[in-house]
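Entry 14. Structure prediction run on the chain below.
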Amino acid sequence: MYSVCVSSQYLMISPPPLPTEQCVEDDGTVYEEGDEIPDPDPCTTCHCYDGEKICAVQDCAPTECGAGYKLVFLPDQCCPVCQKGEYL
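Output returned:
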């Protein structure tokens, strides 16, 4: 076995980038790999991975409100919060 030196220069070749999968919604909206995909439910977070919409649902910790407070759901928030006020 032997080796032959053809040139004193080396040619560095980079492999082409791996193709990434896109997610396409029913309305035609395209999301790239890793993009967050909006969901109407504030408790659900979705992302595009390998061409699929992958979602996770947030759990809310049990919440008890003290005297003079009421547990309420606020718009665009997943978990309820305690708000002060007069409640009968």
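Residues 35 and 47 are 5 Å apart (CA to CA).
Filed with the rest of this week's runs.
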